[in-house]
Specification:
Blueprint: E1 11-15, E2 19-23, E3 25-31, E4 35-40, E5 43-58, E6 63-76, H1 83-88
Antiparallel strand pairs: 1-2, 2-6, 3-4, 4-5, 5-6
Length: about 90
């Protein structure tokens, strides 16, 4: 039986655009040295920069720490799967 995780509060701390610590991270979807894509309790977060490295990744606690030159933090709005059908059948 799969254990269900309780969502953790999402907190983001950025220091000098070189060090980023996150809580409330469900999973790392994709990463390379220029982009890290994370699934958080508040939606998908894309971190863009240069020479990005994952320092800490703890799926149990939802904590992620990374360093490098951070240029952008972009949240995607959660998509409403019924949204298109609601617009079609109004």
């Amino acid at each position: 039986m799969a254990e269900e995780r309780i969502p953790q509060p999402h907190k983001l701390t950025l220091n000098d655009r070189k060090s980023l610590t996150l809580t409330g991270t469900a999973e790392v979807l994709r990463f390379d040295e220029n982009t890290i894509v994370l699934k958080t309790g508040l939606g998908i977060l894309t971190v863009q920069g240069q020479q990005l490295h994952l320092k800490t990744l703890s799926p149990e606690s939802g904590q992620v720490a990374l360093d490098g030159q951070i240029c952008a933090l972009i949240y995607e709005e959660p998509k409403n799967p019924a949204g298109i059908f609601q617009r079609l059948f109004r």
